[in-house]
Structures
1.
Amino acid sequence: MTYQTAIQSYLGDLDFDPAALKEKYLAERDKRVREDGIDQYVEVTADFSHYEDDPYTPRIQREPVNDEVEVIIIGGGFGGLLLGARLREAGFDDIRVIEKAGDFGGTWYWNRYPGAMCDVESYCYLPLLEEMQYMPKHKYSFAPEILQHSINIAKRYNLYDKACLQTAVTDMRWDEAGQQWHLETDRGDNMRARYVAMANGPLNRPKLPGIPGINEFKGHTFHTSRWDYAYTGGDSSGGLTGLRDKRVGIIGTGATAVQCIPHLGEWARELYVFQRTPSSVDVRNNRETDPQWAASLPAGWQQQRMDNFNSMVSGGDEDQDMVHDGWTDIFRNLTGNAAKAAGKVLGRRLTKAERAELMELSDYRKMNSVRGRVDEIVEDTSTGERLKPWYRQFCKRPCFHDEYLPTYNRPNVTLVDTDGRGVQRLTENAVVVDDVEYEVDCLIFATGFEVGTAYTRRSGYDITGRGGQALSEHWADNIRTFQGLMTHGFPNCFFLGFTQTAITVNVPHALNEQAKHVAHILDETRRRQKSSVEPTARAEEDYVDEVRRLAVVGARFYAECTPGYYNSEGGKGNKQGFFSNMHGAGPIAFYNDLREWRAAGQLDGLELN
Ligand code: NDP
């Protein structure tokens, strides 16, 4: 069998012109690429700092803390919760979590917008389900349930005991003589800790669009991650009665907007959706958990399901697709799994070029079906045309929703497409696009979170390591780590998240692997009765080289994409793109490597003093 016949038997007859689609994709990208890349956004400081205020928990007053603990974890989201749990399991009792928010939950504390829900299957996504003996109510959980689960984890693992909530770290310094960290906070605290772990989250800082006139608008405004229910009425499940007599505008049509727009459309007198680039929105198909199925699950089921999902979305070999949803469908058809299937038909492995071609053709076919879904659902053809995404599936975060597209059939909802240019300007009472003024009472920014800015800008504090070196200097050119979790010159300091670790669609899976690894290193350091642990300069250098080597393929793919935070807004060289600092071996190989490293027991690459 020839390669062409194999491709045809795998893909079927192509009912589209790949060259024409490629040309269209590149033209749509070119329309949107801007010189200023990530600098187009406004930082939420000074005049804009109120956009970061916590609308959910009244601020309490408390006396400053002056004490010493064994471990401080900065961040009480999934990363901090998982690390707290794994450390408790390893016998660490003296743990303090410091968290800016009024409670645990991280992204699920902040993102309470109407319709907020996880879009990775909850049986894989919610951490520690078996440990907590909890079964989510739906295949995809709604935000309040996930927030409550986070709080329950914090209770179960005693993380409230010494927690400092509503507290932001302002300074962190290594004390070489005392072999410990000194931390200061915005509450006047002065704390010392042997170990500190940063679990600040990858998308933690809201950003605003740098639209001319952004501070001229006099109507009501807020960012989706600080939803103002006092103004809109209702709660995360909807019921936004306060909007019944309001003209509402929303800027942005990313994964957040896709979830909240159906509720805004239902309640606002008029809704204007200001769109720069449409999302790809596929079937959601949420459903309640079947209690019989839940009762039939054997011990160890969650890790098994997480591993199966991780494998499905990372090109692994699996006989069964346990999760079987939109995510596994696109990965099955658009990645290495598809190449393997076509190779079986052909009777040999595909060459690199053949593989790339197959991926591209499968991608066109998939995106045609996503565009076809718009035609099926949206009644007005002109609106429908403007809701169609013209880029490859992984250029932007894929979305899954069953009520988003039908919202555009409501008479009170208007899509204002900016043809890739973005909103032109704001006035005192209106949003301007193509010189047309759209008057609104309330303007909601669904404009996402900072990506690609300096790590220390996003965390809000710098870290001074051994010999007075600042982390902002050590990482001035780029992040430098060993195993994505530690950096040379900063002993007993750990970074959870995506500082050169591998990412997977199911982010808590990645955080759990990291938490287990960090807990192991702390445990080993204690067992060997050492006071500090850090990577050698050499180990860090080698690791950084490895990350660079593996990053090349992704950079090529993203260069052809429409701008977004995945590719540093189309900025030159993609140095600040979301994936640019991740380990390109992929999660399966990466977690295996970490496991083998732990099993070897040598702590290779680390220096203990
Ligand atoms: P995004 O960064 O994905 O979206 C920001 C939106 O704002 C984009 O549509 C962008 O358009 C638009 N925008 C920016 N500037 C302008 C402008 N000047 N004029 C008009 N539009 C503008 O943020 P989200 O909050 O939607 O999502 C962030 C991430 O959070 C997701 O990718 C996902 O990883 C996560 N998330 C996860 C969810 C889940 O698991 N359930 C739900 C929601 C979010 P353009 O595309 O042209 O840049």
Note: The pocket of NDP is lined by residues 117-119, 203, 209, 211, 251-257, 259, 274, 276-277, 397, 418, 422-423, 446-449, 563-565 (CB under 6 Å).
2.
Amino acid sequence: MPIAWIGLGSNLEQPSQQLLTAFQELAQLPQTQLRQTSRLWQSKPMGPQDQPDFINAVAQLDTELEPLQLLDALQQLEQHHQRVKLRHWGERTLDLDLLLYDQLEYQHPRLTLPHPGITQRAFVLLPLAELAADLYIPGKGRVSHLLDQLTLDDFQGVLPLEANSLSGL
Ligand code: ROI
């Protein structure tokens, strides 16, 4: 069965809860099984800095849905969360990005695979590496290799959520 990788992000209306609910909803998609979920990661916003920090995570699905069917399903889930998107690169209740679908390279007006943002985003690569550091991103390289290419700056403010609660002790 094809394997799909989903990036989740939220920075509005109880972001952690948004992601935990989204995991359950992903598990209930037709012709689909939820295989693995990463931890929740807190990250500084990419884009305007006058918005709350994000919570990010990655999920692995086995799915018989085709890429565009899966995209439709993800967009429906975003709507369920009454997705608010206030401005370009701004705050939002839930983003579900189709990062990768098997080893498919695909160009369509609605969908580019692999997701073009994967390579420079620590808030995608770190949760992805937790699940599959050896995963090969077509045309780009292994997740572990892509992480090696990032600078220290790229990692700043990206932390697993559990570690954060310790910092307050
Ligand atoms: N920044 C972070 N840290 N995490 C995201 O998921 C995210 N998503 C976005 C923008 C607004 C670009 N910035 C983000 O869509």
Note: The first helix runs from residue 15 to 27.
